[in-house]
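Incident log, entry 3
Record: Cation diffusion facilitator family transporter (328 residues)
Problem: checksum mismatch between cached and fresh output.
Input:
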Amino acid sequence: MAAEHSKGGGESTLTVLLALAVNFAIAVMKAIAGVITGSAAMMAEAGHSVADTFTEGLLLTALRRSTRPADRRHPFGYGKDRYFWSLLAAVSIFVSGAVFAFYEGFRTVFGAPQEQGNPVVGYVVLALAFALESVSWTQAARQVRREARARDRSVLAYLRVSDDPTVKTVFLEDSAALVGLVLAFGGLGLHHLTGSSVWDGVASLAIGVLLAFAAYTLASTNRGLLIGRQADPVLVRAVWSWLREAPEVEQVVDLLTMAVGTDRVLVCARLDFDDALGAADLERACVRIDAELRAAHPELDEVFLEPVPRTDPELRSRVLARYGDLKL
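Fresh output:
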């Protein structure tokens, strides 16, 4: 598990570093072009790239801090640090990107008409930015496709259940960046053709909506992981089936899982064991089940097994309240 986790963390770090370098270069180019052209959409895109640059810095912090080993104060490790810093990255996208884009848009649409500078500079910068963003997006998309394929899922399904917010953040923000560049190009072009700066402002507002949506999506994902989201349902069903087939287990009464970090899952299973087992047999069975379960599913970080009677009415009512009549 450590090797796989290290490999994944290394690729995630490469993805974030590439995005950081690309976004910093693009932010400088867009800011210069925005001043030259006087385009609100271009300035909104400059703010967008500045927000993305801050975001990558936060993601690098998330990757570094989340790999610290468990200690006395944090016996389950620091895996959720990645979710916290990724949540701050989503806030950065909204505050530094969306709010600035809305400001530029409203100022241009409802303010005095603005003369356009040299639009050719804007076209060239947007084309270069699109090419550079495509490099970063390709790296993020390649990692997402590889990880989705490894889990036998579609890309959309993988993004929905993934417990690695860093690569998801880079992928979504780069996708939003490419769409934002198209919007900025449209606003700049329509301003050039019609002479009306309103189109520039409308494009800036559209970029703000795009960034707000991206920020909300990422914040919602990290909120769920911070609260304590269940592990991937495919893994949960696999663990349930494995436990049910264990010879010492008569019935799986309850199964609780929680993502405590990227590729790290906590499992608590309440099992009704064979009543013929003695205390020593039960202890050996728990040790064997723990070891074999970890070997079968390396992402399991901690496994707790609790012997319980399946007929206990209070326990049964709690399980039914959580899951209903359907098991998992």
